[in-house]
Amino acid sequence: MSDPAAIEVRDLTVAYRDKPVLWDIDLTVPSGVLMAVVGPNGAGKTTFVKALLDLLKISAGRIRFFGSPYEACRQDIAYVPQRGSVDWDFPTSVLDVVMMGRYGQLGWIRRPGRRERERAREALRRVGMEDFAHRQIRQLSGGQQQRVFLARALVQDARIYLMDEPLQGVDAVTERAIIDLLRELRERGRTLLVVHHDLQTVTEYFDHVMLLNVRRIASGPVDEAFTPDNLRLAYGGRIAFLRSADAAGLSDAIAP
Questions:
Q1: ∠ at Cα 146 (144, 152), nearest 5°?
Q2: Please, are residues 218 and 230 in contact by the beta-carbon 8 Å criterion?
Q3: CA atoms of 6 and 162, how far apart (whole Å)
Q4: Over 194-225, what HEC string results?
Q5: 34 near 41, Cβ under 8 Å?
Q6: What would the mean pLDDT of 3-28 be, rounded to a whole number?
Q7: pTM
Q8: pLDDT digit string, tens, across residues 118-139
Q9: Are 196 and 37 in contact (CB under 8 A)?
Q10: Cα Rg for the chain, rounded, in angstroms?
Q11: How many CB atoms lie within 10 A of CB 19?
Q12: DSSP string spanning 56-81?
């Protein structure tokens, strides 16, 4: 008997005020893949991630992680939210933010000790932020804040990572550092599902993809699912496709 998928979604529907935001979604995410979730604005990408995390009520469907519901394996799942959804004025240090990632294992009563601090510092070192450990989180740039949230996810040592636009608004150096780290996690057998906005980098950064626009348009290995036909279905025919002299490529330029 084969092992269960890392994430399995069946017949998922989410509605706001009786208006479907996600409709009848089926998705299987194999273990150990780096999967992008792409689609136009309003496609339901963030809603999909929040539904997986049981952060909002679903109208219908079933979600399983390694064959179990979220509540049974929440400690195996790490979440990196959109940077814009976080209150960065909260008075706390970078190191404290990262150590919050250990509370799932410690519980809210037991205080983090020396071991947790060492793990938090190691996570900050891996994202290039060790020298900022005692800086107030609100004093950081957008790219630095994103690195800190990635470090917080790292200290959870999760089996599944759910990330909502981790590359949005970061500089090129930070983007490359984040992608290198995601690939390292994949090589260690972790499963990563990442909401992504730049179609031009999907084939370079990811090995699996889901195209979403309220419904699941397509999903699977990038070379099978990330096709011009599927992109036109997802984006309503508004995609302009470019082919470079060096290699075939897809662009997310919007046709006038």
A1: 105
A2: yes
A3: 12
A4: EECCCHHHHHHHCCEEEEEECEEEEEEEHHHH
A5: no
A6: 93
A7: 0.85
A8: 888 999 998 889 999 989 888 8
A9: yes
A10: 19
A11: 7
A12: S--SEEEEEETTB-GGGSGGGEEEE-
